[in-house]
What we know:
Helix content is 2%, strand content 68%. By secondary structure, it is mainly beta.
Amino acid sequence: FEDVSLIDTEQDLYLAALSWRRLVGENGEWTNRLYFRANDKTTSEGEAYPDLVPEGTPAEEVPVRERLITVTEKETEIGWRSDYVTRNRFGRGSAGLHVWQVDVDYSAILREEWDRFVFRRTDPRPPGQQFITLMPEDINSLYEAKETSYAAYGEQVFEFGPWDLRAGLRYDRDGFADESLVSPRLAANWRPSPGIRMSATAGVFHQSPRFLVRAASPDNFTIQNERITHVSVGLERYFGADWSLLVEPYYQWLDKLIVEQERTSGRVTNDGEGTNLGLDIVLSRRFADGWFGSAVYAYNNARLDDNDGFGKYRADFNRRHFFSIGGSWEISERWKVGARWKWASGRPTDAFIINEDVLGPGQPLRFSKELTQKNALQLDSFHSLNIRIDYRRSLGPVDLVAFLDVINVYGASDGGSQEFDPRRGVNVAEDGEAFPIFGLIFERSW
Length: 446
């Protein structure tokens, strides 16, 4: 019985927006956008117990515990964004304001106690118990809030000779975290010759926690934004009119990272920190003679520290090596085909041990997976091929575009999806499959 989860998800999404753009003077452009979005999602999970009845028992007679946990995510957002760009005597200047109000109603309700058989060695549990039990008093949470946030930014590009320097400053007021954030950013480009560009960038960026994380526990209601400080240098070389090669190493300092405290409560803190060292190499050909293409290699080494006494570890989704190659060919005015192949080294996963018969004599046989060291192992590498075919036809003033997009053409496994089966005590890898998408697009230009 590889999959006994009973998962039910319902979601409604709404989005409406209005844009208005006008020219200001000879060189200025002012753009305003009003938008409204809404999300209403309910997810429930339960469990079936086919091992408690004889093999071949009809599905309707298999004992189940439906809707053990129900998570509700409701949010509405209304916002206004205003951006102004102009040429001036220094170069190009821009400024903007973004104001938005979000109304959220999130809840997590656990109906009754639920034994779970994947746990960390540090998770709270009775002495000698080799699994964890989720308790309603630890899981149940209700988060209702309505806050207004705003952000303002200004940026100036100074252009002189082969140089351009960009200086910018962004201010954010996060109503949910009750936090004011200042993000300075600098960049420079130097073109010593027509075929070479050298660059450098530095800046501070902030990442707001997901509402699902904030709502998981009352202790999370006031968690703050994560912070990234980024620096990079780059060299871009042009070969003729069509080809270019970009090499860009970078380094990041990560602060106030969100850290999960234990699996039994959903509580998190901002105690994490880390570093990220990377390198991007991009060989690209711009669109000419009916086709374009690119090849990308990326190296990334992200190391985190939860400041819990267990030291540093690789970030959860850190694939150290990534390569892709692809392009698009416009066969005619009507037909276009594109493809991209991707490969990535395996992401890290926790070291573990398997415990046998953890429920004890007289109870159903269950194994547990005890996680002993965070991200000490590495999963298999990942590769896939995606293709897309477009057909365009003019129908009077409207263009009709029919497309076929096939993701993971040969059904390769992603190398990183494993589920633990507590009835057999094994990790089960999920098989990959091709995912075709067919659609129609109607285009009208005024």
